[in-house]
Amino acid sequence: MSAELLLVQALNGLQFGVLLFLVAAGLTLVFGVMDFINLAHGVQYMLGAYFGATLAAATGSFWLGLLLALPAALAAGLALELLVFRHLYGRDHLAQVLATFGVILFLNEGVKLAWGAAPLQMPVPPLLEGGVALMPGLQYPVYRLAILAAGLATALLLWVLVDRTRAGMLVRAGATHPDIVAALGVDIRRLFLLVFAFGAMLAGFAGAMAAPVLSVEPGMGDAPLILAFVVIVIGGIGSIRGAFVASLLVGLMDTLGRAALPDLLRLFLAPSPARQAGAAIASMLVYILMAAVLAVRPAGLFPARAG
Asked: In the 8-state DSSP scheme, what is residue 88?
């Protein structure tokens, strides 16, 4: 692999990692604070992409569409919490898995009815068109760098909110000792609603930011959801720091593995078998990483600690 390709793939991996973090951050808080397995979290990502693409087309402005997509994703998350999820908090994990899987099927069919099965496209804003010269003869898209910057800025803001505010202290405490937090007079239902709504908005923001570089289509949230669960297992359930580090690790390993493994295997195999074997092994790398972390640190790299 050339140095130019390595640099491009590393940036792609970091960009993928920060988008994954936006999805995983809400999921790890919901799981850690509420002990609630929400398989439907990926549809929040999908709805954010649909809201962003639709509102950008309706207003004629990418920025206005992105801005309006955030409260729309928040409202969708609140509606799901009020109508479905809050009735599952006291149920066992199997009931939560089955019910939220049903929500995935329902909403995937719902977006087909509302928007059709054909993919939507969200144009890149003129301000972020073109590329940046990373080195002579190598251009990298400005919009992908903007995704990376927006994701890192959001991660910093989330760290401040979770680690430096009273609400964040309650969230961190609730992730490890929810019964004690409730006994101290905190309205745990309101805390749950706040965490769930914020997580839904983060996932929707990730979907809206990814819309110009991906096809907006039904089921687009399924793959990020699976990787988000891998991230929270690696990083530690309920840990924002763990989710951030694990997201970058997963993003880099997935992207660089798919690019580099076929070339490495060509040292030992013919080109066609090397390409097939490389693709197969690359798709397993993140799960191998998860198994290795669990073998050494069963609670994850950065287990959540009480506030």
From this structure: G
